């Protein structure tokens, strides 16, 4: 009753922010993302008949807060399998955790993918996506590779709030340079940030009302491989999400000085004809999406920004997949 899986984080181009049902992690809006290749979470899950407690390690250490979320996710899988076995879970990221790089998305996608296999559950990726969403909203997207859309759904039980692939990574192989401007965990997590925004931001209704139009523009851009159109809608959605959060009470400021300077640097490159655009999630890291031919120029420009600690380079990747347990510690 053991299995291991690897999943990659995803970066939303048309952003998800806000929940219509916090218990089920149902979003108020749909979203479109890209799955990354070089950043990963690897998770080993072993269910032990006769054991009642779960033992969880994240990056080699016990994490009580994250352990509670993992236990809740395991309970969903155990309920589907009709068992009450305790589990031993070891998970490792090769990138900063809880720092605005979607570690929860890759983490819970890998957990659901591995846990379902360990319990012998024959679940489709769509079914796994629904379960992963219950654990961490954007994890619904990390089950799939390339370009992915997550529907907000309309059903109260959330069964139609599921992710689906739009386009394979190799069909439009863009690159992403990730400017790391801090490795610290963010002070206000996404769940709390979304709750505060929904309750206090005067822009909440406008955010919801305009999302379907944004999604349609992004779908068309992806279908037509129109980089300029995708650049415009991605930066628009990013800045609109942060404006929504900034207007909460108290305002949510996920950026630092280097974040802002990186965005200026990316815009300056695009004005010079370099095919690149930025997006920023709920954290200080800047993701610069570009044509493969521009990746070295983009990385050099971001490294030149004061306050940038490192620049990661990744292609677009595939969805969650099985690995051997030994690879988790490799």
UniProtKB/TrEMBL annotation:
GO biological process: isopentenyl diphosphate biosynthetic process, mevalonate pathway
Swiss-Prot/TrEMBL keywords: ATP-binding, Lipid biosynthesis, Lipid metabolism, Lyase, Nucleotide-binding
Origin: domain of life: Bacteria
Keyword match Nucleotide-binding: yes
Ranges for domain Mvd1 C-terminal: 177-306
Gene3D superfamilies: 3.30.230.10, GHMP kinase, C-terminal domain (3.30.70.890)
Ranges for domain Diphosphomevalonate decarboxylase-like N-terminal: 7-163
Class of enzymatic activity (EC top level): lyase
Known EC number: 4.1.1.33
Alphabetical list of Pfam families matching this protein: MDD_C, MVD-like_N
InterPro entries named among the record's database cross-references: GHMP_kinase_C_sf, Mev_decarb, Mev_diP_decarb, MVD-like_N, Mvd1_C, Ribosomal_Su5_D2-typ_SF, Ribsml_uS5_D2-typ_fold_subgr
Gene Ontology MF term list: ATP binding; diphosphomevalonate decarboxylase activity
Gene Ontology CC annotation, any one: cytosol
Annotated family: Belongs to the diphosphomevalonate decarboxylase family.
Protein name: diphosphomevalonate decarboxylase
Organism of this sequence: Dyella monticola
Lineage: Bacteria, Pseudomonadati, Pseudomonadota, Gammaproteobacteria, Lysobacterales
GN (gene name): mvaD
